[in-house]
Amino acid sequence: MGRKLKYAAATIVAVAAAIYLNNTSLLATHAGGKPVLLAHRGMAQRFDERDLKNDTCTAARMLPPTHDYLENTIRSMRASFDRGADIVELDVHPTTDGEFAVFHDWTVDCRTDGQGVTREQPMARLKMLDIGYGYTADGGKTFPFRGKGIGLMPSLDEVLKTFPGRRLLINVKSRDPAEGEKLATILNRLAAERRKLIMVYGGDEPIETIRRLTPETRTISRAALKSCLIRYIGYGWTGIVPDACRNAIVLVPINYAPWLWGWPDRFLNRMAAANSAVFVLGPYQGGEFSTGIDDADLFRRLPESYSGGIWTNEIETIARLAGR
């Protein structure tokens, strides 16, 4: 072997060793403690998730209920915290009377006894609806929650007042930057310490507005998350954290996690240093975003002694598996 070839080989070995040492979790500090549990929509009714489209009425394909909690309600959120959730995710829509309604769907037609676009109605009218009206697990033969959800749609203000010391993740459902301005105004009215407990994700335009107007609030949008993960996979081996991953909510599909440099501990430490919170989701397989860590099989795919965040639709199950 010639001198130049030996030098090139030695250089390659040295670079590979440096990359390994800079990214192996074997040499990283382990944060310890139990994982951070995020309850998606609180305690909620599950539904058949196959072949979902944006306009699918999920209440009409509910699975046989095992409890009587309805998503995005005060009762549901309280039950989630009681069962071990550290954070509850909730969905919001602006209303015509200046509030934010806590409700998932773009229209009220599917779940409630009302009609029309959610954001085109006043909160007072939304308060009159029965949010359990449309749930059925047998094709419309029975409606077990009909009549039991009247007045249960809360406003964001109610949620903030009910859970003043709790961590929340707010989902902005539109791509309207004006909605970001309205939510930023509400967040900026809160005390700084309270504001630190709230994160926001959703459409690119409102999230960019919130990121500009309330820069200390951790946020993520689909475009920002894609940029964060792709760039980190590309050059995260250097230890450099992309700007899109800073002061952010980093959602990691469990099947993508092994591709992240330094996974798990080195990666978690880098994100923590960038003031970002990491949550592992269920597998991403294209199309709509992935589900949560919702059963024992997926939970077992997490690294041993994992101490980062877990996104789940089954807080009771995952809290038990996590030792809560």
Automatic annotation (TrEMBL):
Extent of the signal sequence: 1-28
GO biological-process terms attached to the record: lipid metabolic process
PANTHER family: GLYCEROPHOSPHORYL DIESTER PHOSPHODIESTERASE (PTHR43805), GP-PDE DOMAIN-CONTAINING PROTEIN (PTHR43805:SF1)
Keyword annotations of the record: Signal
Lineage: Bacteria, Pseudomonadati, Pseudomonadota, Alphaproteobacteria, Hyphomicrobiales
Name assigned to this protein: Glycerophosphodiester phosphodiesterase
PROSITE patterns listed in its UniProt record: GP_PDE (PS51704)
An MF annotation (GO) of this entry: phosphoric diester hydrolase activity
Domain GP-PDE: 51-322
The species this protein was found in: Bradyrhizobium pachyrhizi
